[in-house]
Amino acid sequence: MASNEILSFDVATLSEHLRGKKISPVEVTKAYLDRIARIDEKIHSYITVTGDEAIAAATKAESEIASGNWRGTFHGVSVGLKDLVYTKGVRTTAGSKILSDFRPDYDATSWARLKAQGAVMLGKLNLHEFAYGITSSNPHWGVCRNPYALDRIPGGSSGGSAAAIVAETAPITIGTDTGGSIRIPASLSGCVGFKPTWSRVSRYGVVPLAYTMDHVGPITRTVRDAALMLNVIAGHDPNDSTSSREPVPDYTATLNSGIKGVRVGVIRELMNGLSDDVSKAFQSAMKQLTELGASVEEVSIPSLPMAGVINTIVTFSEALEYHEEWMRSRPGDYGEDVRRLLESGMAVTAVAYVRAQRARARILADALAAMTNHYVLAAPGSAVTAPRIGETRIVGTGQQRIDPVNDILRFTSPFDCTGQPALAIPTGIGGDGLPLSMQIIGKPFDEPAVLRVASAYEAARAPLPPPSI
Amino acid sequence: MAPMNGDTVKRMARDVFDYEISDADADAMANSTGAILTLSRHLGNLGLTGIEPPFGYPNLNAEAARLNGKKE
Predict the structure, then answer these.
(1) Assign residue A377 a region: left if phi > 0, alpha if psi is -120 to 50, beta otherwise?
(2) What ipTM was estimated for this complex?
(3) Measured on CA atoms in the order B9, B12, B14, B18, is the torsion positive or negative?
(4) Quick count: other Cβ atoms within 10 Å of Cβ A254?
(5) Is B4 on the interface with A (CB under 8 A)?
(6) pLDDT digits (tens, 9 = 90+) for A64-94
(7) Which of A109, A211, A309 would best serve as a mutation to test chain B binding (most B beta carbons within 10 A)?
(8) Do residues B43 and A310 lie in contact, with contact meaning Cβ atoms separated by under 8 Å?
(9) Which of A346, A352, A359 is nearest residue B46 as measured by Cβ atoms?
């Protein structure tokens, strides 16, 4: 089979062909390694490519599949991992100089579960240093670029994970999300990014940013692929005492259920300050949902505007606690932006931290009250399309100047505060040639509802034109 | 609350954290954290009376059990 055909398959299709022995894991792995060799110097989606290990794992998978020993959906499927997910014996840098030579002696649970099914790791994906930013312009490992426009950020912190999906240097990836780091790169780069409920996926073996806000989840080409990955990585982990014991359903079960009669609540507080393209694409998406049989109306979460402050206070404190010793011993080894964010943690008092943690329940209560009669919530993924690399302020609608941090994080960080499942999905391409997106948000542990609505929309929406790299 | 400035930040970092912060970093920090700390006082306006922080005993217990499980 031709390489470009292999590269075009989503995981659902890849898995079917692998199981049916129409293609071999070695063919798939070689197609991806060739693609990475040809184009990744333009986008820097990878920090480490594990070519030899990938071929060895693919060869083993090939032999197992040939002898009828099928291990599951991810058997022989190539996977990329954000480089703060521990991989035994393989460099795990967290995008930093400080961990540049760190090789863990165990696998993160999320990776271990995929590996147990015979997944093949292509390598470790680029990110914003220590996951503490939204640009993925990494000063130590290379500036990650948006495949739709190489002078634009892919978003972050899981920028490499999203760029790899869109540039076809990986068919499926894992990212993490503390203020938006799965959904922001998915939104700005043009793919699907799913932050599950907090505690749904084990955080064991993942370099933390903020313990009580970190989430692990899939970044994928399709909603179905996100469901397939969640089926494997979700579930209680004895190594992560915070991981939930909620039963894990089959997340693919609702994908074809349709959305007739479903009520969608559009969050009023996130409908201001949008660029014209974002606004039009979002309204068009809501129209699509009504054409599919859903009803769409506005809801309000009055405390939502305070979520950014809560997320900042908690993240500032918890991140500094993790980094304090390195900050004392080697502050110069951090990039300037990350060092300044860590230093800011010194000014947050314990009183402010506890108050912020208490306030999270208020935001969640208001969000759930808004959902009393609504199945899911909806909001844009961002107010703007991907900013230029190095840009700190851009002109928005009219003469208003937009701060990309506040006008991107504002849409995502509330659902890290509340821990609700939230999925970003492309809604189209704007006049500037850059991806547009929306989010679907569910009740805690109601990933099936989010996947159902996102899947229905995705099936009805026209496919996005691919980037030309 | 007195406005934060670079000198305040440098003194706090030195006295509380035994950490030397550059003038540029101190000025940047004064701007951003002053705003955050002011806003944090407004969190009380959300009506937090009676709201517990999300630090459940089950987590504490489970973490201790996990640590003991590692020793065996």
Answers:
(1) beta
(2) 0.89
(3) negative
(4) 20
(5) yes
(6) 999 999 999 999 999 999 999 999 999 999 9
(7) A309
(8) yes
(9) A359
